[in-house]
Specification:
- Chain A: Belongs to the ABC transporter superfamily.
- Chain A: One of its GO terms (molecular function) is cobalt ion transmembrane transporter activity.
- Chain A: It is found in: Cell membrane.
- Chain A: InterPro entries: AAA+_ATPase (IPR003593), ABC_transporter-like_ATP-bd (IPR003439), ABC_transporter-like_CS (IPR017871), ABC_transpr_CbiO/EcfA_su (IPR015856), ECF_ABC_transporter_ATP-bd (IPR050095), P-loop_NTPase (IPR027417).
- The complex is a heterodimer of chains A (about 280) and B (about 300).
- Chain A has about 280 residues and is of the alpha/beta class.
- Chain A contains 12 helices and 10 strands.
- Chain A has one domain: P-loop containing nucleotide triphosphate hydrolases (Rossmann fold, 3-Layer(aba) Sandwich).
- In chain A, the strands form 2 sheets. Chain A has a 6-stranded mixed sheet with strand order 6-7-8-3-9-10, with helices on both faces.
- In chain A, helix 4 crosses helix 5, helix 4 packs parallel to helix 6 and helix 6 packs parallel to helix 7.
- The longest helix of chain A has 16 residues.
- Chain A is globular and about 65 Å long.
- Helices cover about 75% and strands about 5% of the residues of chain B.
- Chain B has a two-stranded antiparallel ribbon with strand order 1-2.
- Classes of the chains: A alpha/beta (about 280), B mainly alpha (about 300).
- At the A-B interface, helix 3, helix 4 and helix 5 of A face helix 7 and helix 9 of B.
- The structure holds adenosine-5'-diphosphate and magnesium ion.
- The site of magnesium ion (MG) has 4 residues of chain A, from helix 1.
- The site of adenosine-5'-diphosphate has 13 residues of chain A, from helix 1.
Chain lengths: ~280, ~300
Amino acid sequence: MAAKAIEVNNLTFSYPDTDEPVLKDINFSINHGEILGIIGPTGAGKSTLAMCVNGLVPQVINGEMEGTVKVNGSEVSESSVAKMSEDVGFVFQEPENQLSQMTIEEEVAFGMGNLGVPRDDMRVRITDALEQVGLTGFEKRSPLALSGGQQQRLAIAAVLAMRPSIMIMDEPTSMLDPKGKNEVYDVLKNLKDYGMTGIIIDHEVERIAAYCDKVLVLYEGEVQMFAPSEEVFTNIKKMHELTLNAPQVTEFLSSYNQAFGKDVKLSTTLEEAVDNFESVCK
Amino acid sequence: MNSLYMPKDSLIHSLDPRTKMLFVVFVVASSFILNDPALQLVFLVALFPLVVMAKVVKPYLISIQFLLLFAVLIMTVHGIYNPIGVTPVFEIFGGLTFKYESMVYASVMSFRILVIGTAAVLFVMTTHPSDMASALVKWKVPHSFAFILLSTFQIIPIIAREAKIVMEAQQARCLDVKGSLIQRVKNLVPMFAPLFIITFMKVHQLSYVLECRAFSRKGEKTSLRETKIGSLDYTFLLGMLGFLAFEIYLKLFMMGSLQLTTDALLTYSLFGTWIVFGFMIIKFVVKQFQGKIGGAN
Ligand SMILES: Nc1ncnc2c1ncn2[C@@H]1O[C@H](COP(=O)(O)OP(=O)(O)O)[C@@H](O)[C@H]1O
Ligand SMILES: [Mg+2]
C-alpha cells in the first residue's frame, strides 16, 4: 500500500500557557493529488493543525504534542522544519510578512538558494514559478511595490520554486480585496491541475466547495466532520450547529425545502442546484 | 526605494563587494595616516572621480550634506574654543578668534568624517545588499549573521512605512504630531510603542517564514547573484596598495620638507563649509516657504 501524502493519527496538542489542548485527538489522512479544505470558526485550531504538518508546531512554536503526523510515509517529528520544506510548502496569511528580499526574482530564489539549487537551475525555476502565478516580467521589481494579491502570489511562487509535493495555505486570501482573492484562487486552481497535494484553510465556503476534494471541519480543537466536500456542506444542520454556513446555493435549497416542505436534493454547485431545483418544480 | 543601493551600470558597481569593503578599510586607514588637513583635502578631492565613475554624484551630494553639518559645527566650535590653539589666525565679530592649532585639529577631524563618509556612501550605494551578504559568507561569516545584516537594510523601509501608518492612526485619534517640539517629543511614546510591537511581530512572523523556506538547513547554499573577484578587482586592490605605500612614504620621509597646510588653506576651507552650509539653509527655507504658499507637501 502506497504511503498517504499526509496521515495524522491521534494528534493532541496544547500550547504551554493553556490548560485545555487546542487540538484534541485529530485523525485524518489525504491521498496524493487531493486538496483538503479546513474550515472552522476563528480560534478552532486550524492554523495550529496546519503547522503540525510541516513541523513548525511543535519544533519552532513549542507545546506539548501527542500522536503522530506522517508526510509521504515518514514522521514529521523525526525531521526538521527546514528539511520538511523540501516536501511541504507553507503560505501564510499576511502577504507582506512573507517577503524578505530586494527584488522579486531574489525572493523566489531565496528558498531555492537555501536548498542549494544551482544557479542555472534557479533561472529556469524562477521563470516557471512566476509564470504559474502570472507575475512574468516583474523579476526586477521590489516585492514591496506589489499589490496584496500580487504579493501573495509571489509568496506562492517562492514556495512553488522549491518544488514541494504538498502545499499548505493558511487563509491565503483573508487579507486581500475581492480582486486579490480571485487572483490567488486562479493560481490555486492551476495547482490542482499540476497534481499537487494541498491543504487550504479559508472562510470562503463557496471557494472551498469548488476547489477542495475533501473538507475537514474543526471546532474547538475537535474534528467535527471529515468527508468529501459535497457530503460536508449538504449536512446543513450540523454546519449550523457549528455556527458555520454552507455555500449560498446549498443554503438556498435548504431554506426552500424547509419553507415549502419540499425535498430538493441539496447541492454545492450552481449548475447541479439549478437542475435539482428544476426537476422538482416543473 | 528599498534601500540606499542605487542600481547603475558602472565599473564601481561591478567590483566585488569584498574589494569595496577593503576599499572602505583602506580609506579609513588612510584618513588616519594622512593626519594633515591639506593632504586629507587632496585625498577627498581624489575620491570624487570614483563617485563620478559610479554615477551616483547627485545622491552622494545629498547624503554628504548631512556630514557637512558635522564639519561646519566641528570646524567652527573647535576652531574657536579648542584649548590647544595658541596662534591666532583671524578674528570675527565679538572678539572670537580662530587659532591655528585648533583649526588644524578641527579640519583634520572634519575632513576625516567627510572622507570616511564618502567611502561609506560609495560602498553602500554601489553594493547590492544581497551581494554584500553573499560576499560575507564567502569570508566565512556565518550565514545567519550575513542575513541579519541584509534584513536590517530591508527592514528600514518597512518600519518607515509602518511608522507612517501608526502616525496616521494616532493622528486620527487626535494625537497632535505637528505641535510644538516638546509636544512632539512627548508624543513619541504613543508612536513608538505600537511601532515597536508591530516590528517585533513582523520579525517574529518572518522567522517562521524563513524556517519554512529552509533557512536553517545545513549544507551548501547557493545564490542567484554572482560575485566573483576578477582582473578589475586585482587592479583596484593593487592601486590601493600602491597608494597606501605612497602615503606611508610621504608620512615618514616627506612631512618635514612638505608644508602644505597654511593659514589661507584653513581659512578658506572654513569659509567654504560656511558657504555651502549657508546655501543649504537658504534652500531649506525656500522649500519651507514654497510649502506654505503652495499648500502642497
Ligand atoms: N503561540 C501561541 N501560544 C498560545 N496560544 C496560542 C498560540 N497560537 C494560537 N494560540 C491559541 O490556540 C487557539 C487556536 O489558534 P489557531 O490555531 O490560530 O486557530 P485558527 O487558525 O483556527 O483561528 C486559539 O485559542 C489561540 O488563542
Ligand atoms: Mg489561523
